[in-house]
């Protein structure tokens, strides 16, 4: 029995060496000096990322952002400085076309900055699977939620979406905006005169949507003068609205015929509109003098209330 349980000298030496090894072991110690080289990379490259020659990329002429696309514009110059300083953080999105080219879906400003300002001949892009009819939604989301899209460009884009057969509620849902917000954009696209539009566009200043909407409320022949004053004096939204109200009152006074004797009090304004389907809508005001723009605004507000009521009932 003693012969079986008593360790030999060799066994004692092995146990001693093993004990010494275990005593010196540290859990954080790597078994081999170069073991870190086998660690996986920190991230994988997006499989949709491509390096494409700039000559194979074309811009979309129908891009919703029409202002500040020139390489010399302040926006493009700032983008070029940012890319030089910190690199390209978000590659432009492109879709492959039938001719083997790539058309920009979003990020045109970055593309112009890299190719026309910085002179890059190859750029990184992100391939996007989108059909031509859905391009406008991708561009609107990019420009509205990532940057501040000019209200003039926004108005034109919303008008384009409506022309494609989309309703007000559909546009609002796709853009994650309220119907009131979309309605203002449509009103600007429909009622802002071309001279006023050009005055605002040529200023290089991005006006608030409410400011442009206020200008669109006055008669077309008065809009250019108001737009010019807004640009030259850098008026705020409230100042613009006050200017519009003053212009409306002046026009009402100028068009009111002068009568001798005691002024006769007129009846409150009332008008009935009829549709091709035979329906009729009557609009009444408490005041006597009413501008056509006041009637349009009242109808728009009534439609908005009706839609909200229908949604609440559903």
TrEMBL record:
Keywords carried by this UniProt record: Chromosome partition
InterPro entries per the UniProt record, alphabetical: Chromosome_partition/occlusion, HTH_ParB/Spo0J, ParB/RepB/Spo0J, ParB/Sulfiredoxin_sf, ParB_N
Compositionally biased tracts (Low complexity): 31-40
Annotated segments matching region Disordered: 19-45, 242-272
A cellular-component GO term for this protein: chromosome
ParB-like N-terminal domain location: 57-144
GO BP terms in the entry: chromosome segregation
Domain of life: Bacteria
GO molecular function list: DNA binding
Family: Belongs to the ParB family.
Listed name of the protein: Chromosome (Plasmid) partitioning protein ParB / Stage 0 sporulation protein J
């Amino acid at each position: 029995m003693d012969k079986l349980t008593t360790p030999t000298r060799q066994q004692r030496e092995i146990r001693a060496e093993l004990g010494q090894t275990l005593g010196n072991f540290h859990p954080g110690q790597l078994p081999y000096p170069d073991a870190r080289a086998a660690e996986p990379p920190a991230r994988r490259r997006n499989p949709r990322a491509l390096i494409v020659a700039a000559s194979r990329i074309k811009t979309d002429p129908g891009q919703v952002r029409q202002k500040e696309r020139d390489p010399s514009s302040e926006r493009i110059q700032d983008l070029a400085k940012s890319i030089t300083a910190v690199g390209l953080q978000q590659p432009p999105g492109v879709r492959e076309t039938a001719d083997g080219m790539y058309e920009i879906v979003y990020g045109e400003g970055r593309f112009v900055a890299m190719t026309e300002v910085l002179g890059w001949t190859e750029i990184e892009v992100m391939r996007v699977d989108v059909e031509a009819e859905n391009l406008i939604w991708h561009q609107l989301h990019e420009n509205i939620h990532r940057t501040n899209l000019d209200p003039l460009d926004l108005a034109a884009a919303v008008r384009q979406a409506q022309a494609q057969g989309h309703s007000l509620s559909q546009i609002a849902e796709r853009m994650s905006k309220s119907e009131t917000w979309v309605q203002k954009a449509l009103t600007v696209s429909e009622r802002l005169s071309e001279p006023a539009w050009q005055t605002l566009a040529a200023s290089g200043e991005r006006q608030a949507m409410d400011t442009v909407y206020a200008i669109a409320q006055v008669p077309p022949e008065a809009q250019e003068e108001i737009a010019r004053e807004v640009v030259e004096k850098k008026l705020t939204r409230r100042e613009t609205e006050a200017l519009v109200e003053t212009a409306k009152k002046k026009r009402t006074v100028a068009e009111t015929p002068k009568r001798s004797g005691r002024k006769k009090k007129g009846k409150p304004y009332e008008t009935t509109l009829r549709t091709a389907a035979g329906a009729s809508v009557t609009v009444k005001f408490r005041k006597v003098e009413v501008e056509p723009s006041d009637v349009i605004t009242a109808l728009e507000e009534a439609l908005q209330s009706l839609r909200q009521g229908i949604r609440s009932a559903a």
